[in-house]
Specification:
single chain, about 180 residues, alpha+beta, 434 Repressor (Amino-terminal Domain), Jelly Rolls, 2 domains, 6-stranded antiparallel β-sheet, 3-stranded antiparallel β-sheet, 5 helices, 9 strands, about 25% helix
């Protein structure tokens, strides 16, 4: 873990000196310097004191870089196609277990000719247009503002039944990283 670099970055961002941290925590400047250069590993109680002095939650200091806020700017979204290339998929997140995407369904387009299944759970919100969704024996039509969810291990499909492009916000949760590009 790179806790020391995290502490240093927060301290500098907040314009707090090592001396100020030491004054509030009772730690020596030499020790703090070793912590910030990752030459020593502080105990949890020491980390708790440092977190309090930095005015950040202790848990934040323990997060790995990939577990912190992940930003995807609109013009930096990864764009792929799905459903025989008929669907434009804009990926809104880069997290390990949760995928969020905007999917454009041209009129008549679907996620495939036959229902498919994969690991995870899905939540869909229809932002524009009309769609038909089927999972197993359940099927329904949805319009703007409607939402639905399901366990994706049961074969399912989504189809645009309207005359205009439908836009659906889809979030897929998987226990592992294996659901990266499933729709």
């Amino acid at each position: 873990m790179d806790i020391g670099s995290t502490i240093r970055a927060i301290r500098k961002r907040k314009n707090i000196t090592i001396a100020q941290i030491c004054e509030e925590t009772g730690l020596s400047q030499g020790f703090m310097s070793q912590v910030e250069t990752n030459k020593t590993s502080p105990s949890i109680s020491t980390l708790e004191s440092i977190a309090k002095a930095l005015k950040v939650p202790l848990a934040y200091l323990l997060l790995k870089k990939e577990e912190r806020m992940n930003i995807v700017r609109k013009d930096e979204r990864r764009i792929t196609t799905s459903g025989a290339g008929n669907l434009k998929v804009e990926h809104l997140s880069n997290t390990k277990n949760v995928r969020m995407m905007l999917v454009e369904f041209p009129p008549g387009a679907s996620t495939g000719d036959v229902p498919h299944a994969h690991e995870g759970e899905e939540v869909h919100v229809v932002l524009k247009g009309r769609i038909y969704a089927k999972q197993g024996e359940d099927a329904a039509e949805f319009g703007e503002g409607d939402s639905f969810s399901w366990n994706a291990c049961t074969p399912h499909l989504v189809r645009n039944i309207g005359e205009e492009t439908a836009i659906v916000l889809i979030s897929i949760y998987t226990e592992t990283d294996s659901g990266r590009d499933l729709l």
